[in-house]
Every structure is written in structure tokens, then in C-alpha cells.
Amino acid sequence: MVTSSTGFASACDADYAVASCYRSIDRDEGMEIQRGFFGEVPSLPSKYFYDRVGSELFDAICELDEYYPTRTEASIMRESVDEMVESIGPAGRLIEYGSGSSLKTRLLLEHMHADVTYVPVDISGDYLNQVAENLRRDFPQRRISPIAADFTRPFRLPSSTASQARDVVYFPGSTIGNFKPAFAATLLSQMRNQVGTGGGLLIGFDLQKDPAVLEAAYDDRRGITALFNLNLLRHLNRVAGGDFDLEAYRHIALYNDQEHRIEMHLESCREQTVSLVGRTRTLAKSERILTELSHKYTVDGFTEMAAASGWKREQVWTDANEYFAVGMFRA
């Protein structure tokens, strides 16, 4: 069945007009899109899920019954937050990559010392600023320093007043799994270089499990994940000169057992020619565009990948079903 986007389009147009929630891409981003979409197997960078509407759709996904990662990670955080804060120690800055709504971070902020500066980093600038304002209201004594940036590239941190305290990266939600292993290792190395020797990394990662559980989590009955996937095309139409017809694609989610990952695709419902970043490509009927990967790990396998990027595992917390893990690593 083809997922319809008509209602989604009418609901979102006014939000876009009012919020100005898109931005223009730069030359490097245009080249990145070209390499993916015009390659042998078409793909699109998953970071373009996250304009304001995409961020709000993802928040809705996190509330779905099928989507276990958010509630499972949150339960781990609630049960072990005191141990996590103790493991983090006297941090100067807590730097969250891909902060989104910062909901899980609130639990850490409630328990950490008031002098810790919170640095949320997110590609969706409007949404980020809205979240930061809410945090300043709820945590008036804490310094909140948002950075609108693509965290897959190096970015400059705000100055810290706590010269003797270490920096800690917080990377929840198993977002690390959205990258192929080689790039995930590169990103872990970037984090390692950013915090320096003695710095910390508190990171969530999804564990291998029954494929039926995984596929349901990425293809919910209500179709919210399908709308989230289609929003990537809408976003690229606005920022990258695309002319995708959202009615002409359907959402696909499947588990690749060999690579231990969920793959999300958008399947073309007919033969069509698409323009994007100044070039055109013809898609055959049933040809798929890869939009997201979500790798699933074992604790030992993830520890090995982190060690190769300069991180030493200190502690790992999991749930009773061993669906998800949160790990503390030291540089």
C-alpha cells in the first residue's frame, strides 16, 4: 500500500511558512547529496530528516508503542542516573550531539552540578532555539549554549569557565548506528579529539534482537515513520532544488541480517525523472532510495569499535530484556 502524503502536505505548509524552518545547503552539502543520489544505488543523507517538522515527527515516533528504543533508554537512564552522573564526574561542559528535544538530557541536568554548561548541538536551528529557551526557563541557574551545526563535521565549542573540569559528549538514542561502521569510527574519533585526554562519552546504542521487533519499530501501524521518511524529500525540495512528488513513493523498512542493521528506503511507485541539486535522475518503478541505516550492536562489538577510536569502556547499563545499552567511556 502506498503511503499518502496529501494530509501531511496540507498540515505542514503553514508551519513551514511561519517557522522558516529550512536553510540553504552549502557547496560541500550539495556534493554530498550528489554522491549519494546519483551513485549506483541512490541514497540520501539521513540528516535531512531533521528540519522543524521532521524533528516534531521524530518526537511523535518516540511515543509510539512499537518504537522501543526511546522508552527503553529512558528507563535505563531513570534507574541508573545517579551512577551515570557519578561516572561523568565534575564536567565543565556536557555536549549533546543531535540534541533534538533534549528530553532524556533533562534527567541528567536535574542531577548534575549547576556549574555544568549544557551545549546542545542540532542541525535544525529553529527547533534547537525553541528547545533551548524551554530549558533556560526550567533550569534558570544553568548555562545553556546551543550550537546549530551538522555534528558530523567539526564545530567550534563555546568557551568554558571551568578550566579544570573535563568535557563530556552525550550521544543518546543510538544515533551512532545511523552511520556505516567506518564513518561511525571517524565520528567517535572526532568526539575523542574534541574532549581531549580524560574527557568522557556517555552514549546509547541499540542491541541485536528479534528482527520482527526491529522491523515493527521502524514501520509503525499509524504510519508516522512513513511520514517522517517522506519529509526528507519535502525538505530537500526546499533546500536543494528537488522536485520529488511525495505521492509517488512508499516507505520500506527491512532488517539486513548479514549487516545487523535496519534499512529504511523510499520506493518509487512509477518510473519518474527527478531533479536535485541541478542534476536529474530517472528512477525505475520499484527502484529504492536508501534513506537511513540503523546498525544494531553487541556490547563487546561496540566496545571494540570505540576502543579503535581511542575510548576505554568504564561502565555499561542495559535493560532487563537487553534491548538497549548506555555506555560510559573515557578518552
Verbal overview:
The chain is globular and about 60 Å long. It is built from ten helices and twelve strands. The protein is an alpha/beta fold and 331 residues long. Helices cover 38% and strands 23% of the residues. It has a domain at 68-208 and 297-330: Rossmann fold, CATH 3.40.50. The protein has a seven-stranded mixed beta sheet, with helices on both faces. Strands 6-7-10 form a three-stranded antiparallel beta sheet.
Present the secondary structure layout.
Blueprint: H1 6-19, H2 27-37, H3 52-61, H4 68-88, E1 91-97, H5 103-111, E2 117-122, H6 125-138, E3 147-148, E4 166-171, H7 181-195, E5 200-206, H8 211-217, H9 224-239, E6 249-256, E7 261-268, E8 272-276, E9 279-283, E10 288-295, H10 299-308, E11 312-318, E12 324-330
Parallel strand pairs: 1-2, 1-4, 2-3, 4-5
Antiparallel strand pairs: 5-12, 6-7, 7-10, 8-9, 11-12
Helix pairs in contact: 3-9, 4-5
